[in-house]
Amino acid sequence: QVQLVESGGGLVQPGGSLRLSCTASGRTFSGYTMGWFRQAPGKEREFVAAINWSGGTTRYADSVKGRFTISRNNAKNTMSLQMNSLKPEDTAVYYCAADQRRAIVSVTSSEYDYWGQGTQVTVSS
């Protein structure tokens, strides 16, 4: 089993930046695809970004591409999401997720096996 814990959420003004982190415990996730999803109140959970096991392949939702950067450090069992140029519509609970498959970088939440509890990101002036 892999346990995931997100951190780094908070309140930021539009145009600002925030860095989210995901730390894994238990078995190493070095061979897993990792992803970030978010869910705003009253809305469905949506894909944000994902990264394959080696870090060589990344995928981003169109809404965040060019503003967000996903990265990972397998030696430390951590993953990060650097969020720049934040917009009010980025406000949501952000979830870290892990997919045991290393060859597929999925954008579908149901295909991920492990989830963190989420961290709130609020973008407001």
Structural class: mainly beta
Number of strands: 11
Shape: globular
Average pLDDT score: 95
In terms of per-residue confidence, which ranges show pLDDT below 50 for 5 or more consecutive residues?
Answer: none
Biggest sheet statistics: 7 strands, mixed
Helix content: under 10%
Tell me the fraction of residues in β-strands, as a range. Answer: over 45%
Helical segment tally? Answer: 0
Task: From the alpha carbons, calculate the radius of gyration and give it in angstroms.
Answer: 13 Å
The termini sit apart by: 40 Å
Helix and strand element order = EEEEEEEEEEE
Descriptive account of the structure:
With 125 residues, the protein is mostly beta strands. 0% of the residues lie in helices and 49% in strands. The chain has no helices and 11 strands. The strands form 2 sheets. Strands 2, 4, 5, 6, 9, 10 and 11 form a 7-stranded mixed beta sheet that branches. Strands 1-3-8-7 form a 4-stranded antiparallel beta sheet, with no helix packed on it. It is globular and about 40 Å long. It starts with a strand and ends with a strand.
Key features of this structure:
single chain, 125 residues, mainly beta, 7-stranded mixed beta sheet, 4-stranded antiparallel beta sheet
Give me a quick take on this structure.
By secondary structure, the chain is an all-beta fold.
